[in-house]
Amino acid sequence: MPTILGHRILLSGRELPGRWINPVAGVPVMLSPMMSPTGFPVTSRELDPIFPQPLIEQELETGRAHFDIPREVRDAYLEWRPTPLVRARRLEESLGTPAKLYFKFEGGSPSGSYESNTAIAQAHYIAESGFKTVVTGGAGGLWLLAMGHAASRFGLNSRIYSVREPGTQHAWGEASARVWGVDVVASPSDQTRAGRHRLSSHGPDSGSIAVALSEAYEEATIRPDVKFAMPTLLNFTAIHQSIIGQEAEKQLAEVENGPDYVIGAIGAGSHFAGLIAPFVKRKPANKNLHLVAVEEASTPSLSRGIFAYDAADAEGIMPSVQMYTVGRDYDPPGVLTGSMRYHGVAPVVSALFREKFVEAVAHSQIEAYSAGLLFTRAQGIILSPSSMYTVKEVIEQALRCKAENREAVILFSVTSSVETERSVYDPLLSGVMQNRHLEEGKLKQSLDIIQHRSS
Fold first, then answer.
1. Which of 130, 202, 206, 397 sits in a 20 to 30 Å window from 29, CA-based?
2. What is the pTM of this model?
3. Please, what's the largest Cα pairwise distance for the chain?
4. Are 220 and 135 in contact (CB under 8 A)?
5. pLDDT exceeds 80 at position 333
6. Assigned CATH for 77-112+235-454
7. What is the CATH number of domain 116-230?
């Protein structure tokens, strides 16, 4: 039974879920097959050089409802899970809203983020399969910390292509990487064909998560001694993140009948998929349940993208998945938050959005950061940038409840900032932060390209 301690609802280690769940299990939503660059559905055999077999099964068996969590993964989760569900009483009071706000705090993991939920699982499966090295791509930050810790815990070597800091030879996250012994390569690099192509065509400051993933995936295809790890987008990452939603469902049931809103920010959307996983099946019978995905206004994949097959990486060497995308060729304008700029949304979330199980809104960064600052001053947690977008929409909904004098239960998830050299709010408070607006010309060009590829 959950324990209520002040405004916190806690679960014991014995109540940690024993299975991950498929977010689309039990609802009439079909996922289209992953496609290889040759134009045919991907087979298990094709993925075998890249991923360990359990991850391939989780990726391709889209109709399966549950997957057992291995004992070794559960033991690792128990170092910080179950995470608390907290009633945001002070924020409610500052807004004067009758809405009840509950947040799942995912900032207590070794990486300070929910990204450890899938990093731990992937590292376990790679080590269990007898491999010694994991390679992946990212933009410094939390995925680097999550994968570095997970690799270290399971005795793996880790190599991460991380986006190059503008105007330097250094990658984002190098200092953090040293903690876990990660080999960090500044992307785009001259060590892969994908990196060299990007350097020659766009220059050294043209890095992105999608470019870094191209380089890491390429290395995995030519080195038989390594396996590739994916931070988000793929089905197995959404499955691993379902641990969040399962815990939240059990905790919230102790005090409420259920949520009216479940809100989460999306980059590629796996965390959001995990948060809403146990609630999706309630949607057909409950028209008042709103599952809301929050995007960055400059990269509105759900709001302005198209539903098409697109590659997960910038160079198009990875398999394609059917998703809402602004196109891997879309070059988003500079965003100070440094997050939520991925070109596509996880097939799970995309399919749910297409079938109207999920809604989408977009907010700009100044408004999101301002909302985050309000939350911080009320609740005492300095938020990660993506969490600020979540909180912006939570506040919007809470204020609508106030204006309409109606109650609602709002469930959301946040993580804390891991920045130590300066405050994450410095750009906002110093007045240098700018909103970055969607560039219609670039978006149209990118959508035209993806439509041409799909025809």
1. 397
2. 0.90
3. 61
4. yes
5. no
6. 3.40.50.1100
7. 3.40.50.1100
